[in-house]
Amino acid sequence: MFKSIFSFGRRSNRVVTDALYNEIVASARQPAFYAQMGVQDIPLGRYEMLSTHMFLFLERTRGGSQALIQLAQDVTDEFFKDVDHSLRELGIGDQGVPKRMKKLARMFYGRAEAYREAVAAGDDKALAAALARNICPQEPSWSHADEMAAYVNRALAYLAIQDDTALLAGTISFPDAAQMEAGQ
Question: What does pTM read for this prediction?
Answer without folding.
Answer: 0.87
